[in-house]
Amino acid sequence: MINKLISGIKKTGAPIVVGLDPMLKYVPSQIQDRAYRDHGETLEGAAEAIFQFNKGIVDAVYDLIPAVKPQIAMYEQFGIPGMAAYKRTVDYCHERDLIVIGDIKRGDIGSTSGAYAAGHLGHVQVGENSYAGFDEDFATVNPYLGSDGVRPFMDVCREEHKGIFVLVKTSNPSSGEFQDRLVIDNESGVQRKLYELIGEKVDSWGSELMGDSYSYVGAVVGATYPEEGKILRDIMPKACILVPGYGAQGGKGADLVHFFDKDGLGAIVNSSRGIIAAYQNDKYSSYGEEAYADASRAAVLDMIEDIRSALR
Asked: For residues 183 and 287, what is the distance between their CA atoms, to the nearest angstrom?
């Protein structure tokens, strides 16, 4: 799947993933009204509204981008109906031939980690039948519990030819409380920052699961930390870097140059509310609620140009 992702980036010329992270406050009133008319002001109504909202955005931008990244928490808050909307979103994006990165940030050990991996990336056996659960193409993984939490995902990725993005240096302001801590490298005895050691581990794991040019084991490195991104690009030369934090969190194209390789590949940049809620931004407010998806398309085009300009 990493080969398909890189191929999609080359085809579109857009190293961009749209974060499908719907909140009801982003969903235009006309979509909510229709959903509530059919399902009432219920969890089912909310779930229908966010799916229809997602569908409109996907229809508007699928030809411009290679991938989407639904954040599962935004669906879980609506309970079982929300999870059904998550699955409908994954399936619809696949119908549009988009790569789906499930932003699930799972981190556990042993059979529990294996069950997460099977549910999101693999198959489960039910009697004589085998079923894919959520069936994303990639998943985000928290490495805090060590290799015991990551290897079950790697095993499924090997079987399914899918991939993971391991959290290395996240975009949030407090990430440094732990990720920037100086720790002793047990092998060299030298003090290193924790995110550097995690990056080295990602590089090691990735060497076991290589695609044509990049590994099935990628990394998450926030756009808000460009200097750290430069360090980690050198540490993980074969990892595709998923870069959150663009736009609403403050990252911009000029910050991203060092996340990419010299050929302009090796990274994919995420924007969530900066795209899906673009119509609420003053820059795109002229589109209005009715044309919210057109505003999202305009935001994607502006993002593409910003990143291309930076890489040039």
From this structure: 50
How far is 16 from 264, CA to CA, in rounded Å? 12
Helix H segments across 96-193?
A: 110-120, 147-160, 176-179
The rounded distance, in Å, linking the Cα atoms of 299 and 276 is 9
Could you tell me the residue range of the domain that residue 190 belongs to? 2-311
Q: Strand 191-193 vs strand 182-184: parallel, antiparallel, or unpaired? A: antiparallel
Nearest to 140, CA basis, from 211, 221, 78: 221
Instruction: Give yes or no for a contact between 166 and 209, defined as CB atoms under 8 angstroms apart.
Output: no
Q: What is the mean pLDDT of residues 70-98?
A: 98
C-alpha closest to that of 50 among 96, 99, 86: 86
The counts of H helices and E strands in the chain are 12, 12
Residues with catalytic function: 105
pLDDT at 245: 85
Strand partners, 106: 141
CATH assignment of the domain containing 43? 3.20.20.70
CA 213 to chain centre: 20
Instruction: Report strand pairing: 123-126 vs 129-132.
Output: antiparallel
Q: What is the pTM of this model?
A: 0.94
Per the structure, the count of domains in the chain is: 1
**Distance (Å, whole) CA 199 – CA 210:** 16
272 and 71 Cβ atoms separated by less than 8 Å = yes
pLDDT tier at 203 (50, 70, 90 boundaries)? very high
Let me know if 258 is exposed, middle or buried by CB neighbors in 10 A (0-12, 13-18, 19+): middle
